[in-house]
Design a protein that fits this description.
The protein is mainly α and 110 residues long. 35% of the residues lie in helices and 5% in strands. The protein is built from three helices and two strands; from the N terminus they run ααββα. It has a two-stranded antiparallel sheet with strand order 1-2. Strand 1 and strand 2 form a beta hairpin. The longest helix is centred in the N-terminal third of the chain and has 14 residues. The model has no long low-confidence stretch (mean pLDDT 77).
């Protein structure tokens, strides 16, 4: 914002301390619209960790060349034990729970 204020002060007679940031931006926008102010992009260099990257070389987050071709992952082995023993009479247990609930008897020990 300071650079924009300095630009306006150098080219137009206005007190920079009395102009709000919104007014500065509005005046810059008007200069762009009427063609009195032109912006030109300069080629920039980006400095990355370990060296300099030219703006002409696009940076790739995960380059394909560095990926290893591993193939599909094997399915995970499920080692969960069964909740009920193999000889459990689940129908009788369900009937007992339904009957206890109908009678208002607590069926789970606390």
């Amino acid at each position: 914002m300071r650079v924009l204020r300095d630009f306006l002060t150098n080219h137009f007679p206005l007190p920079p301390s009395r102009v709000s940031d919104e007014m500065v931006l509005q005046q810059i926008a008007e200069l762009l619209i009427v063609g009195r102010l032109h912006l030109h992009a300069e080629e920039m260099e980006a400095h990355a960790a370990g060296g300099t990257v030219s703006a002409e070389e696009p940076a790739v987050a995960f380059p394909i060349a560095e990926h290893r071709n591993q193939g599909p992952e094997p399915a995970p082995q499920l080692a969960d034990s069964p909740s009920f023993p193999a000889n459990a009479n689940l129908a009788a247990q369900a009937a007992a729970l339904v009957g206890a609930a109908a009678a208002g008897i607590p069926f789970c020990p606390v």
